[in-house]
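> tool_call: predict_assembly(chains=two)
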Amino acid sequence: MPEPTDNRAGLVCVGLNYKTTPVEVRERLAFPEAQVPQAVQQVRGLPGFVESVVLSTCNRVELYATHALPSGDHGHAALRDYLVEHFELQPEHAEALVLYNLDSAEAARHLFRVVSGLDSMVLGETEIFGQVKAAYKTALDTGATGKTLNKLFQQAFTVGKKVRNETTIQRGSTSVGSVAVDLAEKVHDLKECRVMLVGAGEMSRTCAQSLLSRGAKSIIVSNRSYDKAVELATEMKGTAMKFDEWEHSLHEVDVIISSTSAPHFVIKPEQIEQTMRKRRWEPLLLIDIAVPRDVDPAVNEIEGVYLYDIDALQTIADEGRRERERQLAACERIIEEQLEKFGFLKPPGQPQHGFIVS
Amino acid sequence: MPLSQQLLLAATLTFVGAVVQALLALKSGAWKQGRAQLLLMAGGFVLQTAFIYLRGQEVGQCPMKSLPDILVFIAWSILLLYFLVGPAFRLSLLGVFTAPLISIMQIMALVGGFAPYAPKGKINALVELHAAVALIAYAAFALACITGVMYLIQERLLKRHQIGGLFYQLPPIQGLSNAIQRLVRLGLLLLSIALGTSFALQTSVSNPKLVFSWVVWALYAVISILMWKHFTSPRKTAWLAVIGFILPFISLWIVTHA
């Protein structure tokens, strides 16, 4: 096996993601976490290959490698064959497999975009940064990286940080769940935040899960079907409450997410006024996901009460997405500058490297 | 212009620069709590400290006798508390809101001018301590006022569903509410200590400075009890912290001209 050396010219990336490949295929081509170290060694062990990093997440599978083969095409073909063989794809599936094949600067640009969250399903999301770091660490620990990939990935992390620090690409919420978290964070310290679900719809479950994943302290689930409340409470490590009891506990929670199917208002101003007195004016966030609405809009007039219905949440999420899209050009500019700085691109006016994108 | 005032001017320009930089960044939506903001504030603080030191040398005592000197000393104390309190309460943006008040106070001081003090006999350390602690207490009330403004803005953004750049930068309203309460309590404690020393100094009860200080103390004692007993909502409390600061601010002018 050749020793890793500086081989930027032989840098390749072969991959698939949520844009190129449907989930039914992606799930078949995902490397389980425990198998990644082995896969890294297998790729590095392919004839002519020098270094490798395997990135496998729910949205993408990408193989980064350096090789000493005659051309990038040979490298792409070898990696494609590896994937087909490793996952034992039937010929018809192998033929239908759509992969992106990138070389040198294009591969670097792609990695920089991935790390910065620009290639993610949710533009600007930050989780991918950690996933790439973990993938690189696995490869590093198994000794599959050398000068080129070590340098490339370090540069990628620098670029990712720079993009996040110099733009607002990660700011704002792009989904109803994340809007709920942002709002809760601006009302309370999330770690002390107690959440109540009134009704157990899918959307309220998503919001509650988002809050819990970000550190909310506890959750109470109340639903007309007590069994469903128990099921959901168990899933979220919370407490179930009978539907005729939730009103008595309103003052004990900081965030109420309501999504019942009631045809009338379930939460009324007089209830909340009483609740606020008991809470000694501690602020209360109400998220009304139900249609028709569960919470009387007059509740928002009460001091210390902040009411958001589904339209308000959706508007904020839409604005968050638009804001991130507005930041895209600035992010791309940073990446291009960094590609030039790291020597992947020559300054404008000079002939560029011959990149192969197929 | 003496060197001390040149330093104060430089400090003021630094704070104005910090405000402009933050406002431009906020307007473009790219504002982030960063090292640049902190460095500007720290730079201004060093310049302020140098001014107070040189001014003390010029007048041969703690420069806290004339209104311009008092304004600068309070501005310096506000910044000192900002560095101590800001990180503890995780109050991002506090600097941005603090800088305009400090700039205004220092501009007022520069416009007012720094006259020499009348010759003074032996310096009484207790008198100096009394004055310094009282002014730091006023700085705590000023910071409570600034935090109150931040609370009212964030509360308004939340109520009106105006979720944008400033919303993401301002701290949670509950954190702001707690910070207001703590700052008012801190100010009250410091003012109580300052007034306690006045007994040791055997100051005349009809001394206008003392009378106004007791009025300020009484006002903040009432505000503190209202907060402590939750008689009012956090929003009203924030308003009290904001409006309440008008009294100590005006009293400074009255007592230095009495």
